[in-house]
Amino acid sequence: MESIRYLDRASGEWREERVFGERELNLFYGSRLGRALTERVLTWPPLSGVYGLFKRLPGSKAEVTEFVARLAIDASEAELPLSDYPSLDAFFARRLRSGVRPLDPDPAALVSPCDARTLVFPSWSPERPLRVKNSLVTLSELLGGDPVLSQRFAGGGVLISRLAPADYHRFHFPASGWASPPREFAGRLHSVHPIALEAGAPSLLNKRSLTLLESAEFGALAVIEVGALVVGTILQTHAPGWVERGAEKGTFRFGGSTVLVLSEPGRVQWDQDLLEASAGGHETLVRVRTRVGYRARSL
Hints:
This protein has helices at residues 22-29, 32-42, 45-55, 64-70, 88-92, 139-142, 147-153, 194-198, 272-279, and strands at 5-8, 13-16, 109-111, 116-121, 130-132, 135-137, 158-163, 170-172, 177-179, 183-185, 208-215, 219-226, 234-236, 241-243, 248-252, 257-263, 268-270, 284-286, 291-295. By secondary structure, the chain is of the alpha+beta class. Strand 5 and strand 6 form a beta hairpin.
């Protein structure tokens, strides 16, 4: 597969992604035999759980420095010195230093839930699947077949935020409002990387967690965390009830993953640069707590 390029929104520069486990991903998804093995064995959630367990053991502490160097991670943003992380998973789920990701001050701004490579689709009709590379998913499938939610978000927009292993892996609320208890959906654990999506992997139907966020500014938002290959755990660190825009919602454990935000029709005007890049099939690296859209002017 060709190199994965994305637009860094902060610098305006095109960058090439350093792919963690690229050889393995090409092996798993690059042939009929590899895809069959992946579907039947490697995406089984307990297998990812065992892998993640090893990354939480003290012996994985020795991997932290190499992981940082290999993926060119800016370790100065981390809350703690590298030597203070007891395992690779602890570093992976790290918090950032105070002030590193300031919140957009405009209350009418919908903010990114995470550091991620972002796609925006302004309208999702329930009559047609959403296409991400060669991977297809319907609104009803994503929402677990719930007819009420499917009707509520029919025709609305969707933000797809793909986290790479190098990224900060805590996720945050895109708006203030009342957060429901999370609803869990079972599923396999395909990779969410473009290599897997290009092969048609049903990655957005992986194991996932859905929180309904009732917001005065943007109406209802569905915030969906999607697990991935070697990501066996989606940990919610918030309590249901009133939450503040930009506050921490939870964290993924070891691996890369995805967060989706669904909006009701007519409630969010997505930022034009993200719409234009997405229309061309290009991801944009967006930092957590920065604006991705704003309250629609018609409201």
